[in-house]
Recover the amino acids of this structure.
């Protein structure tokens, strides 16, 4: 059995697969050459992150493929329905990266309320005489404590974000397809467990009551946050998006940042990846990261292991 890890795999995942007797080709084949490579090498399993797309034409031209493994959560780069119709097993790693994405949300939030993203851009360019001016520019930040965080999408990642928020004394409201109250369990290092109820409300309500908003939803056909939604938000709201670029209408966001309606945004994902719009990249009120939510050593390690375990179980015909 041959496995192609086209966007890489953690060392632990690769070793687990090799120890189980599989051949792992850990190399990057360009999208245009991928079909012929898979055919020639008779690849059984294709592992991808978000950089490789697996569409109908690729699936049709690779009859040896049995499994497509998505090292991550979002499956928008894979024609999932078609692959399954063709009898392929498609697997992902839904739980492995939640903690890492949630921590990145807070990196953007903490940086946002204290203008760190902008200070980092400007301080190296300033001389002694400008230090005081910069100090003034970056004063007047706010605390997160006692503020309301609105979480859109209360799945695994949303819940991790809620835990961190509650842990630093924020109030959490959430919006999700499932209405009603949610209980969030906070576990501390000394085995103390605290359960806190979180109210779920429709997005239209959540956006009116949130000081900060964080999005945790799959790719959408049209943005969840556009001009109309932004107009309903509190003045000076901060918005963080680590889910998918298209869930926020970028031109509407840029306009709202320019007027001060939105005070800052933290973006890990963009409408146009891997070449986000220049206006987004150059906006001083946006804290940027290049789609690295899941890119910690720990998350990648868990992702590799979770994929390896599932592949071994499937190929050895065990129950997944
Ligand atoms: C995911 O869907 O798991 C994250 O966005 C990370 C990635 O795309 O690799």
């Amino acid at each position: 059995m041959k496995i192609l890890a086209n966007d890489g795999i953690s060392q632990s995942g690769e070793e687990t697969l090799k120890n189980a007797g599989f051949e792992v080709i850990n190399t990057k084949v360009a999208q245009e050459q991928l079909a012929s490579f898979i055919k020639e090498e008779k690849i059984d399993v294709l592992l991808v992150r978000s950089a490789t797309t697996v569409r109908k034409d690729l699936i049709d031209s690779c009859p040896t493929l049995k499994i497509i493994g998505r090292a991550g959560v979002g499956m928008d780069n894979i024609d999932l329905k078609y692959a399954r119709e063709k009898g392929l097993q498609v697997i992902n790693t839904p739980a492995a990266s939640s903690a890492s994405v949630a921590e990145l949300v807070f990196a953007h939030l903490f940086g946002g309320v204290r203008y760190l993203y902008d200070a980092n851009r400007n301080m190296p360019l300033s001389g002694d005489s400008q230090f005081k001016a910069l100090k003034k520019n970056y004063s007047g930040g706010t605390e997160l404590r006692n503020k309301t965080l609105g979480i859109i999408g209360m799945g695994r990642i949303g819940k991790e974000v809620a835990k961190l928020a509650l842990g630093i004394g924020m109030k959490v409201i959430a919006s999700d397809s499932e209405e009603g109250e949610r209980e969030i369990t906070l576990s501390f290092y000394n085995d103390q467990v605290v359960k806190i109820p979180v109210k779920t409300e429709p997005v239209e309500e959540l956006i009116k009551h949130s000081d900060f908003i964080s999005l945790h939803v799959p790719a959408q056909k049209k943005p969840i946050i556009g001009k109309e939604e932004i107009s309903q938000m509190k003045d000076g709201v901060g918005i963080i998006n680590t889910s998918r670029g298209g869930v926020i209408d970028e031109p509407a966001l840029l306009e709202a940042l320019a007027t001060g309606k939105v005070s800052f945004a933290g973006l890990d994902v963009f409408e146009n990846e891997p070449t986000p719009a220049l206006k987004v990249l150059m906006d001083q009120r946006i804290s940027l990261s290049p789609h690295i939510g899941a890119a910690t050593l720990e998350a990648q390690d868990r992702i590799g292991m979770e994929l390896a375990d599932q592949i071994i179980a499937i190929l050895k015909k065990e129950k997944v």
Residues 98-288 form a domain with the Rossmann fold fold (CATH 3.40.50.720). The chain has two domains: 2-94+297-319, 98-288. The chain has a mean pLDDT of 95.
